[in-house]
């Protein structure tokens, strides 16, 4: 089964990176607000450069202060994509056609998800990530807020990039 991973990434702006193993690389989308398990939510997912498979386990601070990433979720996925005629297509073809449907088996994210190339603002890189309305959907739970920790270390991104020190709590 191919791999999927979601990393939370402290860079110029914080975001999540959704990566799917396709033909030996991690095809990647940057999701500014992270995934939502509410099927009414459509989350912008910006198609970015492929990463090496080894990147799926990268977690830790980077060499620049305040930056780094955690493995927010990891698991395997099934491609459930179909073409306009309802015929099954492989993930690479589905991505090329701009309409991917996957079934995730992660620690936090499970069930059906759609990735649809929306070309918002005329930009081919702009896709939407939407939870399929199945038994793993939940309109009342914010999975990003509820489960901020790394599935590898149990640490939050703040703890990782702050070297174990939780900062900016507003304490005097
Ligand atoms: Mn990133």
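Sequence proposed for the structure above (172 residues):
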């Amino acid at each position: 089964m191919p791999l999927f991973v979601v990393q939370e990434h402290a860079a110029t702006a914080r975001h999540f990176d959704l990566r799917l193993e396709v033909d030996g690389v991690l095809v990647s989308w940057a999701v500014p607000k992270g995934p939502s398990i509410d099927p009414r939510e459509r989350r912008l997912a910006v198609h970015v450069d492929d990463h090496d498979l080894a990147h799926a386990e990268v977690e830790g601070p980077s060499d620049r202060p305040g930056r780094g990433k955690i493995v927010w979720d990891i698991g395997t996925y099934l491609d459930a994509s179909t073409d306009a005629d309802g015929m099954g297509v492989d993930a690479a073809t589905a991505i090329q056609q701009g309409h991917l449907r996957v079934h995730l088996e992660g620690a936090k994210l499970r069930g059906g998800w759609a990735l649809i190339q929306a070309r918002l603002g005329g930009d081919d890189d702009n896709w939407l990530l939407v939870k399929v309305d199945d038994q793993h959907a939940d309109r009342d739970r914010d999975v990003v807020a509820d489960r901020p920790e790394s599935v590898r270390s149990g640490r939050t991104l703040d703890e990782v990039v702050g070297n174990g020190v939780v900062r900016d709590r507003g304490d005097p």
